[in-house]
Amino acid sequence: MKAIVNVDTNWAIGNGDSLLNRIPADMRFFKEKTTGNVVVMGRKTFMTFPGPKALPDRVNIVLTKDENWSAPDVITCHSIDELFVQLERYDTNTVYVIGGSAVYELLLPYCDTAYVTKVDSAKPADKFFPNLETAQDWVLAVEDEELEHNGVKFKFTTYKRI
Questions:
Q1: CA 90 – CA 95 distance, rounded (Å)
Q2: Which domain holds residue 101?
Q3: Would you give the DSSP letter of residue 114?
Q4: Tell me, what's the pLDDT at 18?
Q5: What b/e readout covers 114-127, taking b as 16+ CB neighbours within 10 angstroms?
Q6: Can you list the residues of the chain whose pLDDT is less than 50?
Q7: Who contacts 130 (Cβ-Cβ below 8 Å, separation ≥6)?
């Protein structure tokens, strides 16, 4: 499995029900990586999508404790065990964990790669991704050149589990 995330300098990912940063190049990167693959997310993350509707051209799996929740074109799982039964159908290299913070925390131990868009800013936040810079079992494998959008600097990085 892989994780894909956009973080600020404090490894923050959101505030309330909103992403901290909306950068078109990052959205394109996310789409390129996940299209044709499996995306795993929590219900709250799903509910932030326009509609809210499943992401097109992807297998959408939502992990939720709400036994009554469902949505069109979504596979709903109510436990990590149920999720892993569903994931047996897919090549683990095609599975992307896309949030939110609780789902990242739960599934990061099962990921071997993390695609992290690092944004050079710090904003008020209440949702965070584990800081891979201080994690003993992760190493920065790729760091692209710094880019800029509307005065905000960012870079694409890839971390690998060691």
A1: 8
A2: 2-161
A3: E
A4: 86
A5: bbbbbbeeeeebeb
A6: none
A7: 11, 104, 105, 108
Residues near 17 by beta carbon (within 8 Å), at least 6 away in sequence: 44, 47, 48
Q: Compute the distance between CA of residue 158 and CA of residue 52 in angstroms, rounded to an integer.
A: 29
Q: Residue-wise over 81-98: b if at least 16 C-beta within 10 A, else e?
A: eebeebbeeeeeebbbbb
Tokens of 70: 């469902």
Interatomic CA distance for residues 1 and 149, integer angstroms:
29
Q: How far apart are the first and last CA of the chain?
A: 14
CATH number of the domain that 55 lies in?
Answer: 3.40.430.10
| Number of domain units in the chain | 1
**Residue 157, C-beta contacts closer than 8 angstroms, at least 6 positions apart:** 115, 116, 117, 118, 140, 142, 143, 144
In the chain, % of residues over pLDDT 70: 100
Res 17: pLDDT: 84
